[in-house]
Amino acid sequence: MYKLIDGKVISAAVKERVKNEVAELKTKGITVGLAVIIVGEDPASKVYVSNKKKACEALGILSREYALPESTTEDELLNLITKLNADPEINGILCQLPLPKHLDEKLIINSIDPEKDVDAFHPVNVGKIMIGDYYFLPCTPAGVMEMLKYEGIEVEGKNCVVIGRSNIVGKPMNMLLLHKNGTVTICHSRTKNLAEICRNADILVAAVGKPNFVTADMVKDGAVVIDVGINRLDGKLCGDVDFENVKEKSSAITPVPGGVGPMTIAMLMQNTLTAAKKHNGLI
Ligand code: NDP
C-alpha cells in the first residue's frame, strides 16, 4: 500500500505558515512585496504569473505585475530591474522565463540583485547552494525537499537518483539531496543503463519532461517516487512517471497534477518572505 504525497495539503501548510509570518511582520510595519515581470504573450507563462499573483494576494504579500510587450528591448528590461532593485517596497523580483529570443536570459537574471532573486537563479545564489550557505533555494527542488520533510522521509544514507540535470530542477535537486546526506546519482540523456540505475533508488526524482518516462520496471519495491514533470498527453496534464503502474510498487508517490506543482508557488512565497526578513535585518 503506497502513500500519496499530496502537494495540495503540504503547500497549504507552507502557505499558512508564510501567511502568519507576513501578518506578524505587518504588525511591525514591515510589508512583504514581490514584483513579477512577464515579457510577451506566452500562454503558459501568463497562467503561471496569474497564479503567483493570486497566491501573493491570499497571503497578504504585495504583488506588482509588469506585463511588457514582446517588443521590449534589453535596455528597457534592464532599466526596470535596476529600478526594482532599488525599490524598498519590493523584496523579491521574478522574471518569468522563457524570455523572447532577442533578450539574453543570462544577462537579465544576472542583473537582479541576488538578495531579491527569489527564484535563486542568479550565479551568486547558485554558488551559495553549491557550498551549502544559502537563504534562497530554487522553488521546485525546495518544494520537493519540503514534501520529503513533511512526510518524515529520511534522506540520509539513501540512494537518491535524479533523472534530469537542468539548472532549474535537476542540478539543484541533486545538491539539496546531497546536503541532506543522500548518496546521489545524476542521470541525463546520455546515461547508460538508466533503468538499472533507477532500480537502485530508494528515492527516485523524475525531472525529464516526457510523459510515462518512468515505468514500473525502473522502480524498486518500496521506493519513494517524486514526479516533477509537467506534460500534456491527449490534452490531459501528466507527469514523467507512469503513475498507474508505478504507484503500487512505491512506498510513497506524488501525483500530477496536485504533487510538486503546487509546492513551487508555495516555496516562492516562502522565499519572498525570507527576502523581506533579510532586508529588515531579522535574519
Ligand atoms: P529540461 O528540458 O531543461 O531538462 C530535462 C532533463 O531531462 C535534461 O537534463 C535531459 O538530459 C533529461 N533527459 C531528457 N531525455 C532523457 C532520457 N531519454 N533519458 C534520461 N534523461 C533525459 O527540463 P526542466 O528540468 O526544466 O523540467 C523537467 C520537467 O519538469 C518538465 O516536464 C517541466 O515542465 C517540469 N517542471 C515542473 C515544475 C513544477 O513546478 N512542478 C517546475 C519546473 C519544471 P540532457 O541534459 O542530457 O539533455
Topology of helices and strands:
Elements lengths: L2 E2 L2 H21 L5 E7 L3 H17 L2 E7 L5 H13 L5 E4 L9 H7 L11 H9 L7 H12 L8 E5 L6 H10 L3 E5 L6 H6 L3 E4 L17 E4 L3 E3 L2 E3 L4 H4 L5 E2 L6 H20 L4
Parallel strand pairs: 1-11, 2-3, 2-4, 5-6, 5-7, 7-8, 8-11
Antiparallel strand pairs: 9-10
Helix pairs in contact: 1-10, 2-10, 6-7, 6-10
Key descriptive features of the protein:
283 residues, alpha/beta, Rossmann fold, 2 domains, six-stranded parallel β-sheet, three-stranded parallel β-sheet, 11 strands, 42% helix, 16% strand, globular, binds NADPH dihydro-nicotinamide-adenine-dinucleotide phosphate
Domains, number: 2
The top-level CATH class of the largest domain is Alpha Beta
- Main β-sheet description: 6 strands, parallel
CATH architecture of the largest domain: 3-Layer(aba) Sandwich
Structural class: alpha/beta
- Ligand names: NADPH dihydro-nicotinamide-adenine-dinucleotide phosphate
**Taking strands numbered 1, 2, ... along the chain, how are they ordered across the largest sheet?**
1-11-8-7-5-6
Outline: globular
Q: SSE order in H/E notation?
A: EHEHEHEHHHEHEHEEEEHEH
CATH homologous superfamily annotation of the largest domain: NAD(P)-binding Rossmann-like Domain
- Give me the Rg, rounded: 19 Å
> Which fold name is given in CATH as the topology of the largest domain?
Rossmann fold
Secondary structure tally, helices? 10
Would you tell me the overall average pLDDT? 97
Gist of the model:
The chain is α/β, with parallel strands linked by helices. The protein has 10 helices and 11 strands. Helix 7 links the parallel strand 5 and strand 6.
